[in-house]
């Protein structure tokens, strides 16, 4: 009898001990991050994750580097459909609606409200527009960029232009480009991608918009057509602008082959580290107003995990978007910090004093708007992109005919 009681007690102690061990095991979270495994950004993110893990021994985040946004989206869909979604993922903010339609992400409103109003209001106002959709908040802003004008100040001065007062209007831009070509016909005046993102900047700088809402395209608006006509003329009529990919544009600009470049703020760190000439940045030229889209990625919280893991994942998302970390990521990557208070940190003020172009870019945040998105976004963007390529790259369609075609095809998509 006594032996039975001893055995029972030993079993109870063993059960309690095993329970204690189990409860002490850290929660393991998977975080998909769109960067290649080699490179400075992967190293910077690994350091950030490692520091979080050390400070939170009950949570262990594993960063899984997925290459780019497209590969990240493919992995999200594959794992989610297989019933094994990540806990957190960084992907393009314009994917918010698609992820919401798949019913795989958590509406963050309750988490954000629990943090108090100061949490929400400390984010850069415009950055919420990309994720505050369908009466929910589908993600947290994390890394964002806008299309900018980059100026080779030496090239402008050589052409007789004031390098400290670069062109800010369409008319001034045309005149400046003509001056560059007149001085040195071998130098490209302006280089730029010719995609929907950069062109959205020109459309908005003419007080236009691609769409009225998530299902109503407005490509036949005269303001949209006028913006495409100006860009088309710069490329094909006046021979003042050459279309390049984002990477090619950066390389040509750094080689001194172009006086002006339109490119993402995400290229600023590369230009900063490699330019041999004095340079500056400013807004895309306007016809009526300064306005342009931001792009980049947001953090998404995924359904399908135990409550304690979801809460732990939210804690990690808060950490990534905290003022100190978003400021640190901005300095490492060239993307904007997403919290207003981040710009008040001593280290951020020192950075902007040392690297004034970053401060110039940050001052343009008041002019930003969300990147264009619609329901069935991938189909809409692909349709528009294919036709825009025919206009700007190939020159085989007029802006008027192209905008009418886009309008017709997208209207059919949303019937």
Going by helix content, strand content and strand pairing, the class is alpha/beta
Question: Unreliable runs, pLDDT <50, ≥5 residues?
Answer: 1-22
Described by the principal axes of the CA atoms, the overall outline is globular
Note the main sheet.
6 strands, mixed
Task: Report the CATH C-level class of the largest domain.
Answer: Alpha Beta
CATH topology group of the largest domain = D-Maltodextrin-Binding Protein, domain 2
What is the helix fraction of residues, given as a range? 40-55%
- What integer is the average pLDDT? 91
> Domains counted in the coordinates: how many?
2
- Amino-to-carboxy terminus distance: 80 Å
- Count the beta strands: 15
β-sheet strand percentage: 15-25%
Question: What's the architecture of the largest domain in CATH terms?
Answer: 3-Layer(aba) Sandwich
Radius of gyration: 25 Å
CATH superfamily of the largest domain: Periplasmic binding protein-like II
Treating each run of at least 4 consecutive H or I residues as one helix, how many helices?
18
Description:
This protein is an alpha/beta fold and 415 residues long. The protein has two domains: 8-145 and 295-369, D-Maltodextrin-Binding Protein, domain 2; 148-291 and 373-413, Periplasmic binding protein-like II (D-Maltodextrin-Binding Protein, domain 2, 3-Layer(aba) Sandwich), CATH 3.40.190. The chain has 18 helices and 15 strands. Strand 1 (27-33), helix 2 (40-55) and strand 2 form a beta-alpha-beta unit. Helix 9 (196-204) packs across helix 10 and helix 17 packs antiparallel against helix 18. The chain is globular and about 70 Å long. The model is unreliable at 1-22 (pLDDT under 50).
């Amino acid at each position: 009898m006594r032996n039975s009681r001893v055995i029972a007690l030993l079993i109870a102690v063993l059960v309690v001990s095993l329970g204690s061990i189990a409860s002490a095991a850290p929660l393991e979270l998977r975080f998909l991050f769109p960067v290649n495994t080699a490179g400075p950004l992967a190293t910077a993110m690994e350091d950030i994750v490692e520091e979080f893990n050390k400070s939170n021994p009950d949570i262990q985040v594993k960063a899984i580097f997925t290459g780019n946004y497209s590969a990240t989206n493919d992995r999200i869909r594959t794992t989610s459909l297989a019933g094994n979604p990540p806990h957190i993922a960084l992907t393009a903010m314009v994917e918010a609606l698609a992820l919401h339609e798949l019913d795989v992400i958590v509406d963050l409103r309750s988490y954000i409200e629990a943090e108090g109003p100061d949490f929400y209001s400390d984010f850069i106002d415009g950055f919420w527009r990309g994720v505050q959709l369908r009466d929910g908040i589908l993600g947290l802003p994390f890394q964002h960029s806008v299309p900018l004008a980059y100026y080779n100040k030496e090239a402008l001065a050589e052409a007789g232009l004031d390098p400290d007062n670069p062109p800010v209007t369409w008319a001034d831009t045309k005149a400046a480009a003509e001056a560059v070509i007149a001085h040195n016909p071998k130098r490209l005046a302006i280089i730029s991608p010719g995609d929907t993102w950069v062109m959205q900047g020109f459309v908005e700088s003419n007080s236009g918009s691609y769409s009225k809402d998530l299902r109503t395209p407005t490509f036949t608006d005269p303001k949209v057509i006028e913006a495409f006509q100006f860009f088309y003329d710069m490329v094909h009529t006046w021979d003042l602008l050459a279309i390049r990919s984002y990477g090619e544009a950066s390389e040509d600009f750094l080689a001194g082959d172009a006086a002006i470049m339109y490119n993402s703020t995400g290229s600023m760190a590369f230009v900063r580290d490699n330019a041999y000439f004095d340079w500056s940045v400013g807004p895309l030229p306007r016809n009526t107003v300064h306005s342009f889209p931001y792009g980049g990625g947001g953090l998404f919280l995924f359904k399908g995990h135990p409550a304690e893991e979801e809460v732990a994942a939210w804690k990690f998302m808060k950490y990534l978007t905290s003022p100190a970390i978003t400021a640190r990521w901005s300095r490492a990557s060239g993307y904007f910090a997403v919290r207003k208070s981040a710009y008040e940190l001593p280290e951020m003020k020192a950075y902007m004093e040392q690297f004034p172009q970053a401060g110039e870019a940050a001052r343009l945040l008041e002019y930003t708007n969300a990147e264009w998105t619609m329901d069935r976004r991938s189909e809409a963007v692909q349709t528009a992109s294919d036709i825009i390529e025919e206009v700007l790259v190939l020159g085989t369609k007029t802006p008027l005919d192209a905008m009418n075609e886009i309008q017709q095809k997208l209207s059919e998509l949303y019937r």
